Amino acid sequence: MEETEFTIRVHEKMIKRFRPENIVWLGFSGGADVLFQAGRHMVQKYPDLPMPGMMIPVSCSGLLTSDEAKERMKEIDPRDPLLHWNMFETMVKYYNPNGDLPQYILGKADEDDYTGFPKVIMYFAGDEVFAGIAPDYEKSFMRCGVKDYEIKIKPGMFHAWPVFTFTQEGREGEREIIADINEFLGNKTERTDLQKRMNDHEA
Predict the structure, then answer these.
(1) Do 171 and 156 share a structural domain?
(2) Which terminal Cβ of the chain has fewer Cβ within 10 Å, N or C?
(3) CA 197 – CA 201 distance, rounded (Å)
(4) Is the whole model's pTM more than 0.90, yes or no?
(5) Rounded mean pLDDT, 155-172
(6) Which helix (H) or strand (E) holds 92?
């Protein structure tokens, strides 16, 4: 809960300086989970706090999964070099040792409330077990009326691959995410600045 509240406190400070619709939340792996946790927490506890303009969770999972998602994860499991389909039992014990966190904080993609969420672009690697959860997120987005969302599943990629920019695949993933942000912001000055920083990073 601490990281969830911290994310919301940072967001509160940001909206004092920037328009909420111009703020993008981006998270990878556990950071993607915190991103969605914070959004769901805002729905439950801070309904009057403006959402950011867009969320980009990369390799998100939550800690609870449907039986259907588990079956899909089992099918992907032999291709995943990093994760295992039944890792969530251990993760839940670690993150919720006292069993007192509400389900919306733990995250269960097929049941969570995404009412009022902004534009969402989700990324999954085709060879990570978390991709088996993607249909559950889409089901909830449709149920909750999230009108502007996209779920991208990248064949052959591994968990959180855009972070690993020392690989060609990582750099390509990074560029695609930056392009998503540029397109969303629709601001030439901002696009130029982001592209320059990306080029400096790769140099």
Answers:
(1) no
(2) C
(3) 6
(4) no
(5) 93
(6) helix 88-95
